[in-house]
């Protein structure tokens, strides 16, 4: 166990005390229970250097790992015996699946299932830019596989990079999307400056006395943001793949964005600007756009079905932005035509 204050003090002290980074003689512990962000470093590759690991919710409760703009910034990672954990979602970093023939890399992601873990060894090193002491997570092994290899990132979609494992001795390169070798670095989360962590929103409970839902503007049970003034009608609370059995695809497959200031207004404006027919908010901070909704992903029209979309928006605690793998789904109203929300009974 390493105490956050102790770790921060050690890092800060080392930076101040000497112009030259001094490596402590005792290595850092393999369990870091105070929250941190994971930074990616490769000083010769500015397109990825000093960027942070984001989590993107995927099917079955898994979380996929990206360097932005895809995914949610994550400030509450921990390390348990060398394995990166994200406790709020009950997931840990594993390697497996999506093997690429071209460059022989395999996906690194997070899951609660029993896949073979990625094992790291925390190691003190000097920051390549500032020469300050930092804790790096040196990749040791893919559990039950030979020791060695490294973690790399390669182009995915929407300008993001995804995380991959490259086995020992591998020198194959996909010329279309080279997997850039990176070092993962522990950046302790400043307890005095914690942005709204995406994950703790799942546990936000609002005291009954503050009654944040504007009952004066919603009929009883109609706990959704009315966007008809902006030309969008509320369709209901629509399931993502986790709650459906029709395949591993997103309910809205067009574009997506996420932010710490998400509102339904911001999401509708985003999807409107791209010309989409459907827009939906999810998991407090995500916005998804698409032009169709599969019959298997249509929301129910019961009042009870709205309960799954009760996550407060990161940008406005008085409105709901979907739920955990549930979309607050809106449809663009025809220009000049009627614009009415679905009636829930
Ligand atoms: C940066 O990435 C390149 C390409 O993968 C790799 O050859 C190099 O070793 C990396 N540098 C560091 C410091 O990891």
TrEMBL record:
Keyword Membrane belongs to the record: yes
Residue ranges annotated for the WSC domain, each copy included: 231-333
Annotated membrane topology: Single-pass membrane protein
GO cellular component terms, A-Z: plasma membrane
Main location: membrane
Highest taxon of source: Eukaryota
Any Pfam family hit: DUF7909
Residues annotated as signal peptide: 1-19
Compartments, as annotated in UniProt: Membrane
Record SMART domains: WSC (SM00321)
UniProt keywords, alphabetically: Glycoprotein, Membrane, Signal, Transmembrane, Transmembrane helix
Protein name as annotated: WSC-domain-containing protein
Taxonomic placement: Eukaryota, Fungi, Dikarya, Ascomycota, Pezizomycotina
């Amino acid at each position: 166990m390493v105490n956050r204050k102790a770790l921060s003090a050690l890092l800060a002290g080392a930076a101040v005390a000497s112009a030259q980074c001094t490596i402590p003689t005792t290595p850092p512990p393999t369990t870091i229970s105070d929250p941190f962000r994971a930074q990616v470093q490769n000083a010769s590759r500015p397109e990825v250097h000093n960027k942070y690991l984001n989590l993107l919710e995927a099917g079955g409760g898994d979380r996929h790992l990206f360097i932005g703009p895809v995914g949610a910034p994550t400030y509450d990672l921990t390390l348990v015996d060398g394995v990166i954990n994200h406790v709020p979602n009950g997931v840990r970093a594993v390697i497996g699946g999506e093997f690429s023939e071209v460059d022989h890399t395999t996906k690194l992601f997070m899951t609660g299932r029993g896949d073979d873990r990625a094992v790291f060894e925390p190691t003190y090193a000097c920051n390549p830019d500032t020469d300050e002491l930092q804790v790096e997570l040196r990749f040791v092994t893919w559990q039950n596989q030979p020791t060695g290899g490294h973690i790399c990132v390669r182009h995915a979609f929407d300008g993001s990079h995804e995380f991959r494992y490259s086995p020992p001795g591998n020198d194959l390169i996909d010329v279309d999307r080279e997997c850039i070798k990176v070092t993962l670095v522990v950046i302790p989360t400043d307890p005095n400056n914690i942005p709204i962590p995406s994950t703790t929103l799942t546990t936000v409970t609002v005291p009954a006395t503050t009654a944040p839902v504007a009952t004066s503007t919603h009929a009883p049970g109609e706990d959704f943001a009315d966007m008809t003034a902006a030309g969008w009608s509320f369709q209901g609370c629509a399931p993502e793949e986790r709650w459906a059995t029709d395949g591993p695809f997103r309910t809205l497959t067009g574009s997506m964005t996420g932010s710490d200031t998400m509102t339904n207004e911001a999401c509708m404006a985003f999807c409107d600007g791209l010309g989409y027919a459907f827009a939906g908010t999810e998991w407090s901070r995500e916005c998804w756009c698409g032009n169709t909704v599969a019959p298997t992903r249509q929301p129910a029209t019961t009042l009870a079905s709205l309960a799954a979309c009760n996550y407060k928006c990161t940008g406005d605690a008085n409105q709901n932005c979907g739920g955990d793998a549930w979309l607050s789904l809106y449809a663009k109203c025809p220009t000049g035509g009627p614009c009415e929300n679905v009636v829930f009974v």
